[in-house]
Amino acid sequence: MNYGGRGVLEFLKGGGWHWANITCTVLNGDVNRLAFSPNGANKESFKIGANFRHGEFERYTYELTADTFVACYGRGATPLSGVWLASGALANCDPVSLARLGYVYGHGCMHEMGMTLTNTFNYYKGKALKSEL
Q1: What 3-state DSSP class applies to 84?
Q2: In whole angstroms, what is the distance from residue 14 CA to residue 27 CA?
Q3: So which domain of life are we looking at (predicted)?
């Protein structure tokens, strides 16, 4: 993520509820996080090498400084989070992004199922032949 020295970028502000837990590591730069709270904002800062978690149904505003890189992965019922993306695409009359979301998700599912079947086949083939491939 190179933002051309534009200073601070806000990339998530009350982004809705997501049915997944996300863990991120700051690879370069700084990330600031403001908690959405009726009692006022709670600011946290994360430097290079720091990890942070965005839990299910939590709401934060994230700010990234220029030249910030963050690696994230998620776990949970991620397909349910697609409901928010799909309704937003339909509300904004953007069927292309909705079609792309469906294509990318379907492609990922088929790839994972193919890998699972291949690994299962190789496991039982190795047991049947009494040799590991």
Answers
A1: helix
A2: 24
A3: Eukaryota
- What is the chain's mean pLDDT, rounded? 80
Q: Under a CB-based contact definition with an 8 Å cutoff, are residues 63 and 12 in contact?
A: no
Are 126 and 133 contacting, i.e. CB atoms less than 8 angstroms apart?
Answer: yes
Query: What are 19-37's pLDDT values in tens digits?
Result: 678 899 999 999 999 887 7
Tell me the pTM: 0.52
pLDDT tens digits for range 104-133: 888 988 999 999 999 999 999 888 887 655
Whole-number Å distance between alpha carbons of 40 and 67 = 29
Q: Which residue(s) pair with 35 in the sheet?
A: 42, 60
Provide the 3-class DSSP secondary structure of residue 81: helix
* 90/23 Cα distance (integer angstroms): 29
